[in-house]
Each structure stands twice: as C-alpha cells, then as structure tokens.
Amino acid sequence: MIDKGFDWQQFLRRWQDEWVPGEDDVEDLEEGGLTLADLALAAPPAAEAEIAAAEERLGTRFPPSYREFLGASNGWRLDGGSVYRLGAAHEVGWFGDPMDMTAIYRRGLDERSAEQEVRLAGMWERALQLETDSDMSYALLDPGDTDEDGEWALYVYKGWSGEIPDRYPSFGAYMRRMYQGFHSDRAGTPGFVNDTTRALDADVARAREEALSGRWETARDMLTEAERYGRPGARGMLSQLAALSHGGGYYGFGELVTDPRYTGELVPVMAAAHLGEGRSGRMPGRFVLGTETDDGVTAAAEVILDQVRDRTYRYAPGGAFGRAVAEAWEAARWGDTDGAWRVIRAALPSWSPPGPDLLAPLGLLGDPVLGPVVTRERGLELLATPRAGRDGVWPDPVPDLDPPGLGWLADSPRWNAPHDSYRCLWVEGAEPEALPGLVGEEGGAGLTAPPGHRARGFHQVPARREGLAPWEDRAVVSVGRTASGWAFGCDLGAWASAPGNFFVSPAAAASCDGRAVVLWVRRGRDGGLAVFHLSVAEGGEEQYAYTLRGTDVERSGPVPGVLDPERVLRDVRETDRERCLLAAVQGEFGLSLPRHALVEGVLPRLTTRSWNRAPREGEVYAYATFQVRMR
Fold this sequence. Notes:
Blueprint: H1 8-18, H2 23-31, H3 48-58, H4 64-72, E1 76-77, E2 83-86, E3 93-94, H5 101-106, H6 115-126, E4 128-129, E5 131-134, E6 137-146, E7 152-158, E8 166-168, H7 171-186, H8 195-212, H9 216-228, H10 234-246, H11 263-279, H12 295-310, H13 319-333, H14 337-347, H15 376-383, E9 421-428, H16 435-439, E10 474-481, E11 486-491, H17 507-510, E12 516-523, E13 529-538, E14 541-549, E15 552-556, H18 565-568, H19 577-589, H20 595-600, E16 605-610
Antiparallel strand pairs: 1-2, 2-5, 3-4, 4-6, 6-7, 7-8, 9-11, 9-12, 10-11, 10-16, 12-13, 13-14, 14-15
C-alpha cells in the first residue's frame, strides 16, 4: 500500500529513469519502427482542470491515489503483464459490463457466500475502466470496494485466463506491484544497476546477518520485499526460512540449487517433499529442481532422490556440528528424539555454512531419521538461535515431545496414533540389534528401514502374507531403546483381535539374558478397556502373567501385589482402568515408550515370530476372510 503523502512525481520519475528496454522493446528498436522516445513510460501531468472535468463527466470523484497519479503523469505505459497502457483522464470511463460478467458471478452466490464474493459479483457493472491497451485484460477501479482512506480496490481481469480477477487494495498498491514486477523482469539483465537495486542488495546482505543472528522474522520481512523485486539470492533465502518455519510442504530454492556447495543441504529437502506428495495420496510428477543446473548437480540430485526414497540418505555435514549430528542421529535412530534435538540445539553455534547464502542446516529436514525430529516448533527455535558464530539472544527451549512413561498410550486415539490395540515387548539390558535373534521370525530380514510417513487420516490394515498358516500372528514392531536401557518392540496398530487360546507370550524367548516384559492391550468399541495382558519372564522362563477381560482375570505364576489387577483397580473408575494398570507396570519396571518416534515412523522395524502357537491335536479353531471389491 502506498501511504498518504506519497510523492508520486518522485516515484514515477525514478521508474522512468531506471527503465531499460525489455526483450520485445529491443527488437522494435533494432527494426527501426520505434525510438526510445516512443517507449517512454510517463506522460505529461494532467492539470487540475483536466482531472476535475473527467470527474464531472463521470459523476464521481477519483480515489486519492489515482487522482494524485494523474497529477504526476496523465497516463502510463506498462511494458510488463497483460495491461499495456493506462489511459489519460479524458480516456477513462465506466466499464458497463459488456460481457455480462455480473450474471455469471451472481449465479455462484448463495446464503453462505462471503462479503468479498458479493462485492466482486457487483463490481462489473459499477467499475471504472482505466486501461486503453491490453492483451484482452481490464484494469477496473471499484467504487463499491473502498477502505477508510477512500481508496477504491483495483481489479485486473485477464479475459483469456478464465480466472478470478487479481485484487489490489488501491490504485497505488497496484502501481507499486507493477514497479516491482518491472524490476523483477529485468533483475537478470546485465548492467541493470541503479539506486533501487543497490539498496535492495544491501538489504539482502543485512537480512543474511539478521537471520544468522536469530532475528529471522526481521530477515524474512527484508527478503520478502527484495524477492518481489527479483533480487538475486532473496528467493532462495526466503524459502529456507519458510522450510523451517512452516514445518512441511514443497520448497524451491531458486538459483541456489545450481550451486554444488548447497546440493547436500537443499536437494534432500526438495526430494523429501516431492516423495511426500505420493505418500499423501497425490501422484508425484517428475522430480525437478526448478531451475537449469549442470550435469553434476543433476546427477547428484538423482542419487539423493533415490537415497531419500529408500530411506538410506543420511545428513552428514563436517566439523564439530557434523559430529553432533552423528550423535543426534544415533539417539533418534532408537527413539530418543528429544535427546537428539538437545544435541543439535547445543551445537548450532558451531554450524558453519558451506557458502554465503545458506542460513541454516537445511539438510536435517531431508534425513529420514532426523527430519521428523525438527518439528515446526523446533524449526522456529532453530531459526531464533544464533548460529555460525553470530551473537544474539537464545530463545527459550521448546518443551520435549515425549511424555514420560507409558500413560500416553491411554490417551484418546488421534489420526496418526490409532492404538485402539497395541502390543509391546521390552528386554532389559539388551541392544535393539539383538531383538531379531531373540524374537525375530526364522530366516527373516532382521531390522528393516521404517516405511514412509503414512498419509493423514489413513491407516492401512497390513495384508496377510502368503505362506503363513491361518493361526499365525506375526507382529511387525518398531524397535528402539528406552532411556533406562531396555530394548523394545512396539506395534501401535495391532490388528489381531486380542490374546486368545493359542497365544504364547514372546517374553520367555526374549529373556535369555535378562528380564522381558510383554503388554497386549485392546479397547472395546466404546473406548473402554476390553483386554489387558501382562507377562514377565527371566532366564528363558515365564515368571508370571495375567490377562484381564472385563472383570475376569486369568493368572499364571505369582503376580506381585503392586501389579495385581484386582488390587490396582480397586475403587478405580472405568475410564481410568487402562491408565492405572500402565502406571503400575511403569512403576515396577521403569518402562517407557517414545511417542514421537513411534507416531512419526522414525524407528526400524522387525517382523517377529508368531505370537500364537499351532493348534494341538484335538483343538479346533475358525477364521474368516473378507474381500471387498469396488464397483
């Protein structure tokens, strides 16, 4: 918006003085059909009497910014966009809606239509038409869409596009945007240097220092303005701030992608966003970098894309920050995403960019393990933290993501954590890599990379594998390590109904070298606790177990009093039963699970041996298979 008291003569004179011929203008000049004088943007100013005569003819007073413009230049040539010339005061007139756009737009209105939609539908009949030359486009001032300063909104309708008109809050705002577009169109023209470009380039340099010092919002405002003028580097830096502050989405980094120094930082982010389109249900198109690059960068980008797709990509910067990233990766790999973030945050001052235009360690976002660690809130914290040796005020750390213990499992299900049923295994003192040998299926692949992120709101029931007997129930668990040193495997989407007659707890097999604990919990359709199973083993033998169904309890072995469900649940409300039982298990063994790592799919996976045994002679069982076909 152009403020009150804006100097139109100075603004238009600067625009005219900075003007250089565009590509089409150069061709016309070379052919001799035009001279530089013919291509002048400005016109002589309109006298007050001319403006007043036009207003009397039209029966209205022009809005302030348009009136002041005419007093500085009675018309203007625009050499960019689809509007080519704004007419003089005596040339403008009421649009009159010759194409009957009013009827088209009013057909789309109903009682739920927004006020702006209603105004737009009536704009066509009351608008003032300003352009006298265009590419089937119209510049329309709407006296029915005004602000407190008496300014009329300006709409540009491209008749060939079929799109809703572009709206500008005033004529002044429209002209400023056209001036920015003029600069943007010529930003790459050799020799296009003037006071405006020099001032904006200085702002880009200052914005970089502001961003590295943690004052990223100040930097964002400066870069936003410079990007509108097409200044080199502004778009790439602005996209870096957006990638960390928005917490998702696709980001193009402009010409920065062409620099091989930034390939390992920027391309993984673009690859992860590109592949995320497929995971969200949309068909990803061809992976493009958004700008022309040399063969070396293109080849490196394809390799990175394959690694991100296979979840084998690993962000590995150099120096002290790189060592901290490696430490954080090991922590996050087994579920300690909060600890991983603390390591990264503490190391940010030691981060050193590989080139002058990188504002933050963006490569973190493309790492399949570390990317989920940097949530939107943590991205904002990273941006507010001084780095690369800069001074500044450190922000307050954001809260940890993982609640302590196991109580969060009893929380109401969310779109990304259904756990209406879940089963978990803990092995004391074991490393996560040991679980395949303890409970993994025979001849299995061992630990495998986690799958890509699930689409929001969609949970796919895993298909039954061929070659398995109907009674078999092989869990696919996410594997990690608790803060107290227990290896765990957890299945938050246990689709099997519940522990049944053929159930054999894997606790005994897992407890060769220490204690093992197994939980299997299932809720009913009403959300209440339907089944709660606990089994504990040590030295390869089950010590005790119980299965609670409703109010009935099946026990084996001496269940300690602190775990006995009849004692734990005495005088406990129905809605608190699951939480109380989990608290008892947590208190006895010091167990926990990392919610963020499990929900975001950071952890490697393992297919276990069957949690059911084969039926014995004389035992019978039944199963049903349902197949749904879409017509």
